[in-house]
Amino acid sequence: MARTVAILGGTGPEGCGLANRLARAGEHVLIGSRDAQRAQDVAKQLRDQIGGTAEIGGTDNASAAAQCELALLTVPFSGLAALLKPLKTVWKPGTVVIDTTVPLAASVGGAPTRMLGVWQGSAAEAAQELLPQGVSIAAAFHNLGAALLVGDAPVECDVLVCSDDDEAKQLAIELAEKIPGVRALNGGKLENARIVESVTALLIGLNIRYKVHSAGVRFTGLPS
Fold first, then answer.
1. pLDDT band for position 1 (50/70/90)?
2. Which of 50, 72, 94, 157 has its CA 20 to 30 A from that of 172?
3. E-strand spans in 63-191?
4. Domains in the chain, please, with CATH?
5. H/E run at residue 19
6. For residue 76, what are the CA distances in angstroms to 41, 104, 117?
7. Which of 134, 200, 118 is nearest to 168 (CA)?
């Protein structure tokens, strides 16, 4: 039986982009939203765009979390706690959560090139505190912007994956590399997510200064 990958808060640009890419890669994708009808409408739009046998459904966040084996968090940082607190009793034991959240000041009305201070150190570590025992977390996809995820063209970008759980880390690496052109790299412990998250603010600044929408990162000198 195929696994279900839930994308919570998945009706925004990042969530839609990841849903598009993962469905094209053959994953069974379930988009979650505060508004189940909105999630269903977005799922239909993506199915129509992709065509073929794309498996994308839509429902509310709690239902999506309850049905999945793997979940991606794609909400703005300001909505992270509001998303996760009601889900504490919903997750199935053994679920892996991949946090893509970046604590940008833009989520509270500030500049998109500035980071918010997070007491726990990073958005991923804040998310970890809101998950029950038996649910593991990895941090990934922070530097893969929504503009890069539209369509099906190869993506020239590395994705750093951080986690204290080796199984969760490997699963996130394998998922990232289903996107053509992406190379996923072991970014070390979950605490390193605070460094990776901050790179997003830098990339946003580069996009603004160079008037592009697709700045990414590549690390050189590593074995192929």
1. low
2. 50
3. 70-73, 96-99, 136-139, 157-161, 182-186
4. 4-210 (3.40.50.720)
5. helix 13-24
6. 21, 8, 15
7. 134
